[in-house]
Amino acid sequence: MKYPLLGTVVLVLMCTVYAPAQVVKSSRPASSVSHPARKKVTEPVAAPASVAASAAVPNWLPSTNPVQPSATILSDLIDTKLDVRFDWPKQWLLGVATLTVRPHFYPQSQLVLDAKGFDVKSVELVNASRKGKDLKFSYDKKKLTISLDRLYQRTEQYQIRIQYVAKPNELPKGGSEAITDAKGLYFINPLGTDKTKPRQVWTQGETEGSSCWFPTIDRPNQRMTQEISLTVESGQKTLSNGLLVSSRRNPDGTRTDLWKLSQAHAPYLAMLAVGDFAVVSDTWRGKPVDYYVDPAFQYTAKRVFGNTPEMLEFFSKKLAVDYPWDKYAQVAVHDFVSGAMENTTASTFQQQLVQFTPRELADVTYAASESVIAHELFHQWFGDYVTTESWSNLPLNESFADYSELLWAEHKYGADAAALVQQTKLRNYLDEAQTKREPLIRYRYAEREDMFDRHSYDKGGRVLHMLRNYVGEEAFYASLTRYLTHNKLSTTELAKLRIAFEETTGEDLMWFFDQWFLQRGHPELRVTHSYENSQVVVHVQQVQDTLYQPVYRLPVTVATWNGNQPTEHRIMITKADQTFRLAVNQRPNLVKFDDEGILLADIDETQSQEELLYQLSHARGYLQKYQAIQGLRAKSSDLLVSSAFRGALNDPFWATRVAALDGLRRYRGAEGNAVRKDLQRIAMNEKNGTVRATAISVLSSFLNEDYSEVYSSALKDSSYLVASAAVNALAHAPTPATRTQLAALQNTNNPALLTALSNYYGLNGTLDDYQWFLQRSKDAPAEVLYVMLENFGILMQRIPPIEREKGIQRLEALARTHPQLYVRLGAYKGLHELIASMPTLKATLQDIRNKEKDGNLRAMYSLIQ
């Protein structure tokens, strides 16, 4: 499962200039570093009650939540057969489910199934001749409790047939930040009245949404084979798990497709999708690989999904476990409630992630599409083939899928691309860790959806990166092969992963798994070095709050450079305050702690300007170059520094060029004319669109300077990202021709350009642009609305209050009812912009806050002043 906001993040990246985050803080003199007092110990210990009571509790320490054990298994699902059709006007599923079940160990005379919001028509015991015997049952709209005809032993299978109607729209509102709705079955534009969307129906099972459309035991520690028979209109395409084994036309003009999955999987991985899809076919080793997209995108589908066969080959060889299923399909659906979902053999994607016009493809980076494709594909091994036994162990699914994004980037695009993934993912986790620190494997949580966070994904992936580096490449993949083969088609927990690594390497790895999977937090390191008597003295302090986090055992590499030659020194940090002496022949030009960027840590490393300049010119990869640029930014006016940044503008990796450009933002040094010429040259001639867009953004930081010719040219650029950067630049420096130029762009559907236009009109618009906001706020995608609605409020500040009624009504309706949290937030912020001129809106905003059900959103409202 991907994050629900992933589409937003991707498209915001396409809307704004790329700005990698700093994850290692370098070059700060020791005297300037200020840390709050922290308890430092050499080993993790439990705090005495008196100490804990008197110490300040960090804001990231969660409240005590209930223990969440794995579900007790009374009965085993063996097979599920579904025969379903749809009532589109009512948005109902009409189903018959035939379940093959047996007691798990203890004899059973009762079967309890999850079945949410159904009309249950009948429940029958099916005998060998397929005849049914009515069974007594009770049903409370959540659980279907069936009284069997006798006591069954664990050696006896039996079949239950249930006729039912699923009514997902009548379920109570559910969902979370990770999965924005929980009704399992979704009809999109069922009546065909919305001309902007196709008619579709699709499902989303994780975490317990499958029981919203068929009766089952909706727990991850169940496994079942499956057949789904779908009766649909003749022109519709269908997709489900497994292979399409038959398709027949019916006398009433409908068609029935039968999909069969012959290997068992968890109920939450069951899926169906129906719609007017174009199916683009591919293959891998003779197995079908299909891409289901809107017909308008069938000619660009292979440019988005086309590396899937190569991914299948790469992952199969690396894992020494061939892709284990009969086929692999990927479908793009509208209004999906998460980023993507790894249904067995058939992953589902929100359409914004994978459907692009030919022009938009110029801006699609690895991070924007291939990363999520790799992520969901890797789940077919980690999550589907081997499945977490409980949501507490979710990182055994998600950490591996997250790490596959780095593995694929490394294989396909090289070490620099992998380093960029590593940097971005570490930043994501460290951002979340400011307000939340939990163990990766959490046996306590409030809601199961709480597990879908940057810990389970980004932190988990970084932990696997450290594990790979520690045990070595060969042992890492050999351990994964052992883990997959020993646990195939079954459930797993953390101990099984640890045992696979220990049996492979012969080493007791409890220390690693305990501190990284079972304890919260991360190391916060203060690192300094000096040169004494032919030795480099490295001083490392763990300054994290060890009242609630461990003192870590950290294997790390320190590189010392002389001339052009690095020497690597392996050290093991085991204490809160530790000094290491490294033998060298002479004073090094550079000392680099964690030189390959392996550690999951917040590192404050003191380096001199000379070292950072040396690092930038000699660095072996993107991460070190980026860190050097960040450390030198404060000195960008220095001639040596600006010359080094200008040199980095020619770096072969695009993200390094972006970092160097950003280092020259608002440059005021002696090379001013040369810098500006470089920026203009890059803005006009650079091949990479993200780099061109960054150059335009940096040019716009030079106030009172006229680069309107560059911006005007960029409005016609083949890249939407570049055109959007030009619109944003012109928003702060409009020319007499700008309004006419932008009028030609107003009907765009590209999210990046639409967002930029809303920024322009928010700052420069008049009453003439009011109708544009009213119209585009109806059809703009959610990720654009977040920005657009606040800009709408800013525009309305400049128009007469008597003209604002429709706009205020639009903002209020979206703030109260839009299904996406961030859209409601954007609408609220838009209304808030009008308080100064319309004080009566204070009561409206207060009422919106009081009636908002999401606690996180209410907290965000309270921060808006």
From TrEMBL:
Aminopeptidase N-like N-terminal domain residues: 81-269
Named cofactor requirement(s): Zn(2+)
Keyword terms of this UniProt record: Aminopeptidase, Hydrolase, Metal-binding, Metalloprotease, Protease, Signal, Zinc
Signal peptide: 1-21
Domain Peptidase M1 membrane alanine aminopeptidase residue range list: 306-516
Pfam families registered for this protein in UniProt: Peptidase_M1, Peptidase_M1_N
A GO term from the CC aspect: membrane
Enzyme class, broadest EC rank: hydrolase
Catalytic reaction annotation: Release of an N-terminal amino acid, Xaa-|-Yaa- from a peptide, amide or arylamide. Xaa is preferably Ala, but may be most amino acids including Pro (slow action). When a terminal hydrophobic residue is followed by a prolyl residue, the two may be released as an intact Xaa-Pro dipeptide
InterPro entries (alphabetical): Aminopeptidase_N-like_N, Aminopeptidase_N-like_N_sf, ARM-like, ARM-type_fold, Peptidase_M1, Peptidase_M1_aminopeptidases, Peptidase_M1_dom, Peptidase_M4/M1_CTD_sf
One of the GO biological process terms: proteolysis
Gene Ontology molecular function terms on file: alanyl aminopeptidase activity; metalloaminopeptidase activity; peptide binding; zinc ion binding
Enzyme Commission number(s): 3.4.11.2
UniProt similarity note: Belongs to the peptidase M1 family.
Name of this protein: Aminopeptidase N
